[in-house]
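Need the bound structure for flavin mononucleotide, inputs here:
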Amino acid sequence: MDFQETIRAQRPCSQYLPRPVPDEKLRAMLSAARLAPSQGNLQPWRFVVVMDDDRKRMIAQACPRGRPVAEAPVVVVAFSVEEDVPVTVGGYISAYPLDVAVAVHQLRLAATAEGLATSWIVDFHEDKVRAVLGVPEGIHPIAILPIGYAADGATGNNGSGANGDGRKSPNEIIAYNEYPW
Ligand SMILES: Cc1cc2nc3c(=O)[nH]c(=O)nc-3n(C[C@H](O)[C@H](O)[C@H](O)COP(=O)(O)O)c2cc1C
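Answer from helper R.:
Posting the output first, comments after.
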C-alpha cells in the first residue's frame, strides 16, 4: 500500500474480530509512534498497551461508547506528560496534546499499512481511565485506541459530499497569500 492509499484506507472501526494482532505488527505500530516528531524532541508521550480482558473491560466502562474497547484484542492508551511541555502554541493554548496526537496518528497509519483497523476515542472519563491504569498526577490520557482486525462492514465510511470522501473541498479549506474566509 503506498502512502496515499494508506491515508485513504484509514477509516475508524466500530467492531473488531477476536483474531489476535501479531506481535510484529504491534511492534511496527509502536515503532511508528515512537519515531514521531515532537516539539523540541521532548517526546512527551507514553503508551500503555492493554491486552488483559479485565482491564480492557474496565477501560470500556470508562467510555460512553466503549464496546470496541472491550472487543478489540489490543487497546493502546496514549498519554501526555504535561510537565515535559512548558510551551504554548502562540501563547494561547497548551501544546502538550499536539505531540501526542502526531504520534497517535503515526501509530494509526502504521496499523492501516499493516492491514489492521483502529479507532480514535477521546470520549472517556479521565478519572476512571486513570484509576484503571494507575496513572499519576500530571499525566493525561489523550486517546484510547482499540486495534485489531475489522469485522465485515465495521469500518466507517464518510464517503458523502461533493468529493465522495466526506471532506470539505480544497477551496473551502485552502487559500494562498491571505485568509479569505
Ligand atoms: C482527535 C480525534 C478524536 C476523535 N474522537 C473520536 C471519538 O471519541 N469517538 C469516535 O467514534 N470517533 C472519534 N474520532 C474519529 C472521527 O470521528 C472520524 O475520523 C471522522 O468522523 C472522519 O471519519 P473518517 O475518518 O472515516 O473519514 C476522532 C478523530 C480524531 C482525529
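Comments: The two ends are 36 Å apart (CA to CA). Residues 11-12, 119-123, 156, 158, 166 surround flavin mononucleotide (CB under 6 Å).
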